[in-house]
Write a structure and sequence with these properties.
alpha/beta, 9 helices, single chain, Rossmann fold, 3-stranded antiparallel beta sheet, about 20% strand, elongated
Length: about 250
């Protein structure tokens, strides 16, 4: 990744200052990112959110740090000097390192994602990205790591609404305790509606949340997502209602 991509993070850089002390059960994160500005932004952000971060900027050093620090999660950029991210991942897996890995890169094609996952990655987030989503994915992977304290220290999910819940850590949706198979935009719509159950959410606001950063999206695009989500919650205790000219609301069926 080049220095010109430092603006790939969609959140402002946090103000300087010392990070808080590590919390019991905090995630141990190995951050491998060669762009100095991006690395600093991510390290400060995650430390302020209670994680312990070890950062480095090249592939060979990443392998050494990986073996020495035994992190809960590795956040790995693909475009690294020397060994690239896929080479680092392949060598780590060959060496028996089973730490969950989230690939973070500007390479966003399906082929790149498949190659990364086949090499041994556990998740893949293309740039540009949202910091809250990135943190949620890191914490979700941390709970899967053997012996991770994050798994035991994680807070419970909020009370369900009509059987529907959003896990605040992983960002995943659940119906009566079972994971739901939702496309990213369906999940974003459900998350927005569950934030205000029983209340109307304006179409314009939903467009911002479901299609972030896409100024050219047609206003009726949200109708397609709502239609798909409505089908997936059909037969449950919840009902997705269209308010013509206003927006949508999620309410108890019946």
């Amino acid at each position: 990744m080049t220095r010109g991509n430092a603006d790939a993070v969609s959140q402002p850089r946090p103000p300087p200052g010392p990070p808080p002390p590590a919390k019991v059960g905090s995630v141990k994160l190995l951050l491998v990112e060669d762009n100095t500005a991006m690395q600093t932004t991510l390290q400060r952000t995650f430390e302020r959110r209670g994680m312990q971060v070890v950062a480095c900027g090249d592939g060979a050093r990443a392998l050494d740090r990986w073996q020495a620090s035994l992190p809960d999660v590795v956040l790995l950029d693909l475009s690294l000097p020397g060994l690239d991210g896929l080479q680092v991942l392949a060598r780590a897996r060959a060496a028996g390192l089973t730490t969950p890995v989230l690939i973070l890169t500007a390479r966003g094609t399906v082929g790149d994602r498949i190659l990364g996952l086949n090499t041994g990655a556990d998740d893949y987030l293309p740039k540009p990205f949202d910091l809250d989503e990135l943190e949620a994915r890191v914490r979700a992977l941390a709970r899967r790591a053997p012996g991770s304290q994050e798994r035991d220290a994680s807070a419970g999910m909020p009370a369900p609404y009509c059987g529907l819940q959003i896990d605040p850590d992983s960002g995943g949706a659940y119906l009566r305790g079972r994971p739901m198979d939702l496309a990213p935009r369906e999940l974003a719509l459900l998350r927005a509606l569950l934030a205000r159950p029983g209340q109307a959410v304006a179409r314009e606001r939903l467009l911002e949340l479901v299609f972030p950063g896409k100024a050219e999206v047609q206003a009726d695009a949200i109708e397609v997502v709502a239609y798909r989500l409505r089908k997936k919650i059909a037969g449950t205790d919840a009902q997705l209602v269209t308010l013509r000219g206003l927006g949508y609301l999620l309410k108890a069926a019946g």
